[in-house]
Design a protein that fits this description.
The structure is a single chain. The protein has 100 residues and is α+β, with helices and mostly antiparallel strands. The chain has a domain of 48 residues. It is 18% helix and 22% strand. It has one helix and four strands, in the order αββββ. Strands 3-2-1-4 form a four-stranded antiparallel sheet. It starts with 22 loop residues before the first helix and ends in an 11-residue tail after the last strand.
């Protein structure tokens, strides 16, 4: 049975007086989110994410696919015109194009 929990501040070090975030805290947060995604997603399952809010990748990258493969979360450039939040299934094999 799922348990309801009271929401609290987003803080990695609740016992420290300061709320400042250092690079290690940010890395830890990224690893925690990646782990959470790996528990939610099935193998080869992913989701399209728009890049916004200060995320800087290659200048021509506007969307990525975040997906699980062999118990790891991966990020892949999305080259298709897919809406953010679209669920995708990743494959190791080439998918034939429908443009003929």
């Amino acid at each position: 049975m799922k348990q309801n929990k009271k929401m609290q501040e987003n803080q990695l070090n609740p016992n420290e007086q300061t709320n400042s975030e250092n690079p290690q805290d940010l890395l830890n947060a990224s690893l925690i989110f990646a782990r959470a995604l790996s528990l939610i997603l099935e193998d080869s399952q992913g989701i399209v994410v728009d890049l916004q809010g200060g995320i800087e990748l290659a200048s021509d990258t506007t969307k990525v696919i975040v997906f699980k493969h062999e118990d790891q979360v991966h990020i892949y450039k999305c080259e298709d015109d897919l809406v953010e939040g679209t669920a995708v299934r990743m494959s190791n094999t080439e998918v034939p194009s429908e443009e003929n």
